[in-house]
């Protein structure tokens, strides 16, 4: 990996390179995706089935597009029983964590006829997209379905591309059932996103679409945003390790590679105050690359987006971490919890030598659907709040409105909204001192 002394001259260019990765292909495929989305919007099932045959080499129709109970039973027979037990254990932690995020409606009576509040309502129907092909991630199935279920979403549907034989991965199917999905459909890509956004004869329209996917899925989610809500446009995975000289270089190297193996666009960054640690981590990475699978992917990831940044002080290191705003931030340093309080921008924060990123991916409970590409500056992990909406509640009696009605009329007059003003005026017509002589 490149070891760089972080100085004023190198900061801006380096941070821009990390933040801008992953968007280079968007322009290439935008037109194609928009055509697919429009075809499904207007053509419904006919277009959805045609694209599924074209891209997934699988023929589906109104009878076969939805996964049957028999297929679910077969999945349970095929899935590794030990994996199923792990899924169930992870679900306990994931549910427990998200249960703590639940909000309740609240109401308050301030006296004098004033009643205010906020009503919490779960979304009615949510669509979860799950990638297919070589990327099979039952953990992401859990992370997308559980918070929706905890939030009280009435119906959760899932769409995932089928194999050529029409079959779906048993681990994905069982994870979905264990997490509480209601219906599963066999379709992927931009056409699946469009089907959930607009509805077809077979696929119901949803209120929100969540879940990761390739560039076609990302662009389709962008295209349908506004017709439905979406979670985010997920970019390549990333990790930043914040460390001092007390960190174990072998642990640091292993954790950096745990993200570099995702794809060639993944980013792995170490920020440290110790040149000695930097050099030791670089050596450990070289050793791991000789024995780990996916070596070629990791090497390309590190070549383009792998950095070891050395700073003079921990304050500078923390500043760099906040500027990069990583998806995953590991702290391996003295006073890790104290350093955590100085972190403003990170999707998930892991503290201590034994709190490695895969713990969060699979088991600890917090959601692993996290903001990427620097968006941790203003976005949060996927959670229960993503599956609810809030309505303000306002109730004033005549006695409560009377002492403030002239203030409201003045506000409306200032903005030139005479119908707003009149809406208040008619409720006090004929009242002496109402103040309405056409001058206000």
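^ structure tokens above, recovered residues below v
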């Amino acid at each position: 990996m490149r070891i760089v002394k972080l100085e004023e001259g190198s900061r801006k260019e380096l941070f821009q390179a990390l933040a801008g990765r992953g968007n280079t292909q968007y322009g290439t495929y935008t037109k194609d995706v928009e055509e697919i989305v429009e075809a499904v919007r207007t053509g419904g099932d006919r277009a959805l089935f045609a694209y599924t045959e074209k891209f997934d080499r699988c023929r589906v129709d109104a009878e076969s597009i939805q996964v049957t109970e028999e297929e679910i039973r077969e999945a349970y027979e095929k899935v590794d029983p030990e994996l199923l037990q792990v899924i169930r254990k992870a679900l306990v932690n994931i549910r427990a964590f998200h249960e703590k995020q639940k909000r309740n409606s609240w109401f308050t009576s301030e006296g004098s006829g004033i009643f205010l509040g906020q009503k919490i309502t779960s979304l009615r129907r949510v669509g979860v997209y799950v990638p297919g092909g070589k990327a099979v991630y039952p953990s992401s199935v859990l992370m997308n379905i559980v918070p929706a279920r905890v939030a009280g979403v009435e119906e959760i549907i899932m769409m995932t591309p089928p194999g050529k034989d029409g079959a779906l991965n048993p681990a994905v199917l069982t994870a979905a059932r264990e997490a509480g999905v209601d219906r599963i459909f066999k379709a992927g890509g931009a056409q699946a996103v469009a089907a959930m956004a607009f509805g077809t004869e077979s696929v119901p329209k949803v209120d929100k679409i969540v879940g990761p996917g390739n560039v076609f899925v990302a662009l389709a989610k962008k295209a349908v945003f506004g017709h439905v809500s979406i979670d985010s446009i997920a970019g390549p995975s990333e990790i930043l390790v914040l460390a001092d000289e007390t960190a174990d270089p072998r642990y640091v190297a292993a954790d950096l590679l745990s993200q570099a193996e995702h794809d060639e666009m993944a980013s792995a960054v170490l920020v440290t105050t110790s040149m000695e640690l930097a050099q030791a981590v670089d050596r450990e990475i070289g050793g791991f690359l000789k024995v780990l699978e996916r070596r070629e992917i990791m090497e390309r990831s590190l070549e383009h987006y792998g950095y070891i940044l050395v700073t003079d002080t921990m304050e500078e290191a923390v500043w760099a971490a906040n500027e990069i705003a990583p998806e995953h931030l590991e702290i391996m340093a003295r006073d890790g919890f104290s350093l955590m309080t100085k972190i403003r921008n990170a999707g998930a924060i892991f503290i201590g030598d034994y709190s490695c990123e895969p713990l969060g991916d699979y088991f600890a409970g917090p959601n692993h659907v996290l903001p990427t590409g620097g968006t941790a500056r203003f976005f949060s992990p996927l959670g229960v709040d993503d599956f609810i909406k809030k309505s303000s509640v306002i109730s004033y009696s005549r006695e409560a409105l009377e002492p403030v009605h002239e203030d409201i009329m003045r506000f409306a007059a200032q903005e030139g909204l005479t119908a707003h003003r009149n809406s208040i005026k008619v409720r006090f017509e004929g009242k002496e001192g109402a103040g309405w002589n056409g001058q206000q």
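The chain is about 45% helix and 15% strand.
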